[in-house]
Every structure is written in structure tokens, then in C-alpha cells.
Design brief:
Blueprint: E1 4-11, E2 16-23, E3 28-32, H1 38-48, E4 51-56, H2 62-65, H3 68-75, E5 79-80, H4 87-91, H5 93-99, E6 119-122, E7 125-131, E8 140-144, E9 149-153, E10 156-157, E11 160-161, H6 171-182, E12 190-193, E13 199-200, H7 201-207
Parallel strand pairs: 3-4, 4-5, 9-12
Antiparallel strand pairs: 1-2, 2-3, 6-7, 7-8, 8-9, 10-11, 12-13
Amino acid sequence: MPTLKAAIVPVTPFEQNCTLVWDDETKRGVVVDPGGDVARIAAAIEEVGITIDKIVVTHGHVDHIAGVAELKQRLGVPVEGPHRADLELIERLPEIAANYGFGRVETFTPDRWLDEGDTLEIAGLVFDVLHCPGHSPGSVVFVQKENAFALVGDVLFRGSVGRADLPGGDEDTLIASIKNKLLPLGDDISFICGHGPTSTIGHERETNPFLR
């Protein structure tokens, strides 16, 4: 089985966890949610010495996708994700980015939209795709069961959950996504989220006040 490694590259004033995930033997991997500061991401890729096969997107909020078009052009790789329900957010990216002080940002069209039940290859391993709306309509989570590892975007955090007060968000839908799709994965699943420290499903089941 490939030796999975990951490194978090915090980007932009939002401190978004852009994440590199790779196989330590082949040195091939992906960039997850390049939200900006593309030069910093490129430097991190060079520092760990990996070749990027694709860009993977968990959802369409500006702090997760503002760097996608620039990085795609720089690396010449495809973009996979999120769910098509975030199409409007992606189409409005230049306008939204300007409103949040990101400056001029180009939009993009994913080479592949992802849906519930799809699989995604990352670093030679197969990740299951879960559609987990609530934070955004098209939020997706990626789960690698054999390594007990997940990338959850802004669906779930250590001690918190994603915001549901943004356009397209819904608190009841978000909590249902977490309780019906993430908690059943098992307590041993470690995850990297879109902001802040990592955690496990078990820790959040026991301590997260939003899930009680």
C-alpha cells in the first residue's frame, strides 16, 4: 500500500488549510483547496519534492478556490471537485473574490464534478467521495478507509462545525451530513479540515458541542 503523507500549507488571511497529500515512495500527489498565495503553495510543493497530478476541491467558497485557476495554469493539471451544486459559487468567483479583498481572481471549470458514491484517486489510493451539504450546497468529503484518513473541508472542525449562515448554507442539513455520513465512518478516522487543527471522528463525537 502507498505510504500516504500530508502537509498543511496555511494560505491567505483566512488561514485556510491548503493541503498537499502524496505517496512518499513515488513522490506523486495532489493539492487540496488552493485558496490563494499560489507562490507559497508552489514553494511547499518544491520543498517536499513531489509531482502534482491534480488539484482537488472540497467546496466552492472563495477562501478554498481563489488560487485554483492560477495553480492549474502553473502546473498544467486537471481539477476535480466539488459537487456541481457549487457551480454558482464558482461562476461568481471573480465578483466574490473582489468583495473579500482577494483582488483579481479568475474562475475555472472543474475537469470533473464529484458526487456521492464516486471515488477519487489520490497518491495511488482510492478515496470515497461523500456529498455533505450544509456549509455549502456542493461540499464533498474524501475518505481513505484503509488509512483511516479523511479530508473534510469546512464540514467539520475540531470542536466546531462549518458556518451555515453563508448563501446556500443550512444548519440542519449540515448537522445531518455530519451525523449521517461522517460519524458512522468510525472513531479511528483522523481528518484534516479546512481551518485549524486536525482531529478524529471519535474526539468530535465525544467532545464537539455542536454534535450533542
